[in-house]
Design a protein that fits this description.
By secondary structure, the protein is mainly beta. It contains two helices and 30 strands. Helix 1 (15-32) crosses helix 2 (42-54). Mean pLDDT is 84; it is low at 6-38 and 383-389.
Length: 389
């Protein structure tokens, strides 16, 4: 396109009409001064016309831009627009309007200052910027942004603040991909989900708004609250938060700590239903009671922190740091509050002082104080081995 299209007082006027009008006005002024002023030479007249044209300013104007197919790209209203001589650039004040894609509004924008550049191919906004996507009610605020119509990307340069009924987040900068409705946060990120309240800190975050999914692929810290009290803390290298079902898929170098009950969880992958406070993992898991010094490991685990119960399956091993007691079984249920363990299948219990071990089909008791009862079934008896020095 040859320069920006614009509407003043809602009447479309091509650039060439404005140019002729300015030149006509200059001609009239020159004629009135003909008897009193020396006649200007042609070079001076051309320079005066160029200067006048460069000072073109519109007040209370509506500006718009379309693509080669005639589809609207953007349409904005401004209190003032000051044009460059080639009409490819304009400085704007008090900007508000709409950005379109495929004939539909994808962003409603407003800002104190703005600039249209590259023949309308870029829009820069500054100061008190608010952009709203009416399709998903996401609100983005910033101090400086750039809209690229050809890419359908809003480049958020400074102090991104995003909000939605499900989530609020802030970052150093970001990008909004209007076609896919994805908001990317970059640098110094703090994100907070509202119900229940959960705070996340990281350096890179992708929010897929229609899918109600937030993905963090860098080192992140998550804190979960109940009634403003911290209940759980998580550190991991990857988290995929499903806001609609209150669930997080967590992977890679996980460290999870529950405040009550006092349990730490170490594994490489689990699903965390954070509202219900339930963990499920099909990978090897280590559970640590950091007050009693009891460690339980297994190949699979389900942990219900609300009811303080853990279920472990496959190659289960329990250890007591206080007395070096060990328990092995196929499956195990652990009541974290009472510390009572119920182990089933190929049970082996070992302790020292005195040194002995028990084998059987079932064991019940507390391992931290050596109060374990091992029993067999109708076919298998309990076998006791006592070691003497």
């Amino acid at each position: 396109m040859d320069g920006l299209n614009f509407i003043q007082k809602r009447h479309l006027q091509p650039n060439w009409i404005l140019t002729v009008g300015v030149l006509f006005l200059l001609s009239a002024i020159t004629s009135c001064k003909g008897n009193n002023q020396p006649q200007s030479n042609p070079d001076n007249s051309q320079q005066e016309a160029a200067n006048a044209e460069s000072q073109l300013i519109l007040n209370n104007a509506t500006l718009e831009q379309s693509n080669a197919k005639g589809e609207m790209l953007w349409k904005i209203q401004v209190d003032e627009a000051a044009y460059s001589p080639d009409r490819k650039k304009a400085q704007l004040t008090a900007v508000k309007g709409n950005i379109f894609q495929d004939g539909k509004i994808v962003l409603r924008i407003k800002a104190d200052q703005g600039e249209i550049a590259q023949d309308g191919q870029k829009i820069y906004l500054k100061e008190n910027i608010v952009a709203v996507d009416p399709r998903n009610n996401a609100v983005m605020q910033s101090d400086e942004v750039e809209w690229r119509p050809q890419e359908s990307v809003l480049m958020i340069r400074k102090n991104l603040r995003g909000s939605h009924p499900q989530l609020t987040a802030s970052a150093k900068e970001g990008k909004y991909y209007a076609t896919k409705q994805k908001l990317e946060f970059i640098g110094n990120i703090i994100a907070i989900s509202k119900k229940p309240r959960m705070q996340l800190k990281t350096e890179h975050l992708l929010w897929k708004i229609p899918e109600q999914k937030v993905i963090g692929d860098r080192l992140l810290n998550i804190v979960h609250f109940q009634d403003k009290i911290i209940t759980d803390k998580l550190v991991a290298n990857y988290a995929e938060i499903h806001l609609n079902i209150k669930q997080v898929i967590v992977k890679n170098n996980i460290e999870f700590k529950s405040i009550k009950p006092p349990i730490q969880v170490a594994t490489n992958e689990f699903i965390w239903k954070y509202e219900a406070r339930q963990l499920t993992s099909s990978k090897p898991v280590k559970l640590i009671h950091y007050q009693q010094g009891v460690i339980i490991t297994g190949n699979q685990a389900e942990v219900d922190l609300t009811n303080s119960i853990a279920y472990l399956r496959g190659g289960v091993q329990g250890n007591s740091m206080a007395n070096a007691a060990k328990l092995y079984s196929n499956n195990l249920t652990w009541n974290v509050n009472t510390q009572i363990i119920e182990a089933l299948g190929n049970v082996i219990y070992e302790q020292t002082a005195p040194d002995f071990n028990l084998t059987g089909e079932k064991a019940v008791g507390t391992i931290h104080d050596n109060k374990i009862v091992v029993s067999g079934n109708a076919r298998d008896r309990v076998v006791t081995e006592i070691f003497t020095k």
